[in-house]
């Protein structure tokens, strides 16, 4: 069953709720270094988090008419053992819920997912 696309009013309310949620999280979570908005892509946020293996990890969130999409960079394009890595990631995808590995820009590996807009809450 496919739900209808969000109305302009529903999108505006959810966009405001996400902005408010990020403001609260920024105050409470020291690892949340920065939240910014994309000026060219409507309803897109960049959340920069303090990383362990890398200094900073960025999560992109994009609110569309039907879903809230999220993605983060995972690995650069593999230079060796590509087939083995891709097989491993496909096998991991089988058990993952709410996210999946994929090949993104510059052949890099990303972890992506999405929620229906009506399922987004605190």
Describe this structure in words.
The protein has 122 residues and is an alpha+beta fold. It has a single domain (8-119), classed as 2-Layer Sandwich (Yope Regulator, Chain: A). It has 2 helices and 6 strands. The chain has helices at residues 8-28, 82-95, and strands at 32-37, 44-50, 56-63, 67-75, 100-103, 109-116. Strands 1-2-3-4-6-5 form a 6-stranded antiparallel sheet. β5 (100-103) and β6 (109-116) form a beta hairpin. It is globular. The two termini are 24 Å apart. The model has no long low-confidence stretch (mean pLDDT 93).
Cα end-to-end separation: 24 Å
What count of structural domains?
A: 1
- Unreliable runs: none
In CATH, the architecture is 2-Layer Sandwich
Indicate the CATH topology. Answer: Yope Regulator, Chain: A
Structural class: alpha+beta
The proportion of residues in beta strands is 25-35%
Q: Spell out the helices and strands N to C.
A: HEEEEHEE
Q: How is the main sheet built?
A: 6 strands, antiparallel
Strand order, sheet with most strands: 1-2-3-4-6-5
State the CATH class. Answer: Alpha Beta
Number of helices: 2
> Portion of residues in helices?
25-40%
Question: What do the pLDDT scores average to?
Answer: 93
Kindly report the oligomeric state of this protein. Answer: single chain
In short:
The protein has 122 residues and is an alpha+beta fold. The protein contains 2 helices and 6 strands.
